[in-house]
Amino acid sequence: MGAAAFFGLAGIAFGPALALVLFTVASEPLRVIVLVAGAFFWLVSLLLASLIWFVSVHLSDREDAKLQYNLLIFGAAVSVLLQEAFRFAYFKLLKKADEGLAMVSEDGHSPISFRQMAYVSGLSFGIISGVFSVINILADSIGPGTVGIHGDSPYYFITSAFLTMALVLLHTFWGVIFFDACEKGRYWCLGLVVASHLLTSGLTFLNPWYEASLVPIFFITLCMGLWAFVTAGGSLHNILKCLSCKQQDDSRVMMYSALQVPFED
Amino acid sequence: MITFMNNSDSEEEPCNERTSLMSAESPPVPSYQDGLQASEAGEAQARRKRRAGSSCSPNSIADGEVSDSGVPVRGNALENEEEELTLKYGAKHVIMLFVPVTLCMIVVVATIKSVRFYTEKNGQLIYTPFSEDTPSVGQRLLNSVLNTIIMISVIVVMTVFLVLLYKYRCYKFIHGWLILSSLMLLFLFTYIYLGEVLKTYNVAMDYPTLFLVIWNFGAVGMICIHWKGPLQLQQAYLIMISALMALVFIKYLPEWSAWVILGAISIYDLMAVLCPKGPLRMLVETAQERNEPIFPALIYSSAMMWTVGMAKQDTARGPSQQTWDAAEDGRENHRSPSHADSQMSETRSPVPTHPIASLEEVEEEERGVKLGLGDFIFYSVLVGKAAATASGDWNTTLACFVAILI
């Protein structure tokens, strides 16, 4: 335990997220704003979901353990649905913002593309939901203690960190797929995203049995990642082109300077 | 202190700051996000309202209108370009504000979580005489409301007093008051803070070292804040004194009173700024009439401005503290006029910021944003209280943080 555990867990849980933010979001102020606003939307959805769960718990019989467990499952499902609903609301808001930005910009293009906004919004949902799942665990991991000393799994902290990493990535992918599906009107994609979110959430209920929950969740993450990549326009060809992109730039530069000549006349 | 606002090429700079009350009379400004949804009407008015997304809004609005009347024909393209620049730099300015606010909150939260002193209840300020240790909920609520009323009335009285002083040109008194309060903040509170931190980590420090450290810290702070200094050092000092002030509030305000006071202060803020007879507004008007900057050391500025006649034209040189800030709708961009929260007197004074106009062309990036120190303190108290009362739960603190940024 102690600092090693803290930094290790934090690195596992937020390594990808931190890298993504540092390299893609931090330098552009508009993206930072989209990030923070997305986090806020997720928080509101969580607030509503927790209100619903809280009310239902208070109205029910506290003693009945089975009922409380079922209410927990119900609460988780409601939370997932509300998160997706708020993702949709954020989509609507960003759409309007995109139009506004395009309208006031010089050349009619908004300074941030809609795909970028989809990615950043997914990332924001992921970061804030990951933070909310794991920050208390991180805080506890600094202090003295033994994990699972009362008979629970000793792997609790590390599996939580991995789960958080998967969650961050999943939300990012879901964001990209969701926004694209909404734009193109492919509602079956939306349904699949919601279904996979529900599935992931449900898998976590298997939790002390980590093989059954973590492995499928990472598999889902991988699939979603590939799907998001294809949705965003990626392909094997693109990857190869990206890896050997040096010559391409040169020719483009030459074309541009060739274009300059007429203007000078 | 002389301004060349009228002579400088202010038309090209949408973010030129000048105190203006026109925006305060204008219809409510949409938030930054709403502002991005351009209205179809898209007339200049609406566009200027959107400029409120950047913090230089009221000035730019006034400026835009002044320059519009001065220059009769303004191409649409030019306005569009201004808008584009404003939005782009508006976003940048918002981010430039995120960082200091975040830093201040981090300092406050870190201190609250680690130093026990600031969460122990050791009495209350005289401004909140009613205790909250009552058995019944109703009584507690009543006491907190009474505390709030007393605190807000103290603030109102102090603000009015300050406005009167300003109106009757008692500058020496005001300067003396400000210097005294920043002295107290920089020396006394730092001493207490340092003492508590050393106690928490069980580090021994002898008095000569302590004296040296605090003397240096305080002296440099006074110079940086009230006179000239490197911009980042100035910013760092302002963040630190805001954090110290916030910590004091967190310690000495009882729980429910703190939350009610926070709510009441936001309402008071709105009223003081928007009502025609509001003290802050009168202050701004007076200052505008006299065309003067006032009140150093109460505004956080994120960029430097060239001062007239500055010897070294070095970008690293920070300007003097004479800045104006327009007193206008703070609720939209969380940027209400700055407030001087001195420990001795809970004043809320606006700090209209108005740049010492430059003879040179100042680029957009250098037009930073300004945020009143009172806002820093306000936000930090919010987050600090959440951290203190949440008994180890970080989720609450983080949620507060995100909500404040929004």
From TrEMBL, chain A:
UniProt topology in membrane: Multi-pass membrane protein
TM region(s), chain numbering: 6-25, 32-55, 67-86, 117-135, 155-179, 186-206, 212-230
InterPro entries found in the cross-reference section: Aph-1
CC annotations in GO: gamma-secretase complex
UniProt keyword annotations, A-Z: Membrane, Notch signaling pathway, Transmembrane, Transmembrane helix
Annotated compartments: Membrane
GO terms under biological process: Notch signaling pathway; protein processing
Family: Belongs to the APH-1 family.
Assembly and interaction partners: Component of the gamma-secretase complex.
Chain's role: Potential subunit of the gamma-secretase complex, an endoprotease complex that catalyzes the intramembrane cleavage of integral proteins such as Notch receptors.
UniProt name for this protein: Gamma-secretase subunit APH-1
Organism: Galbula dea
Lineage of the organism: Eukaryota, Metazoa, Chordata, Craniata, Vertebrata
UniProtKB/TrEMBL annotation, chain B:
GO biological process, one term: calcium ion homeostasis
Stretch list, region Disordered: 1-74, 317-356
Location(s) in or outside the cell: Endoplasmic reticulum membrane; Golgi apparatus membrane
Record keyword Transmembrane present: yes
Compositional bias per record (Polar residues), positions renumbered to this chain: 339-350
Membrane protein topology class: Multi-pass membrane protein
Chief place of localization: endoplasmic reticulum
Transmembrane segments: 94-112, 145-166, 173-195, 207-227, 234-250, 256-275
The UniProt record lists the keyword Isomerase: no
Entries under InterPro entries matching the protein: Peptidase_A22A, Preselin/SPP, Presenilin_C
Keywords for the protein's UniProt record, in alphabetical order: Endoplasmic reticulum, Golgi apparatus, Hydrolase, Membrane, Notch signaling pathway, Protease, Transmembrane, Transmembrane helix
GO MF assignments: aspartic endopeptidase activity, intramembrane cleaving
Enzyme Commission code: 3.4.23.-
GO cellular component, one term: gamma-secretase complex
EC supergroup of this enzyme: hydrolase
Domain statement: The PAL motif is required for normal active site conformation.
Subunit structure: Homodimer.
Job of this protein: Probable subunit of the gamma-secretase complex, an endoprotease complex that catalyzes the intramembrane cleavage of integral membrane proteins such as Notch receptors.
Family, similarity comment: Belongs to the peptidase A22A family.
Name of the molecule in the record: Presenilin
Organism: Galbula dea
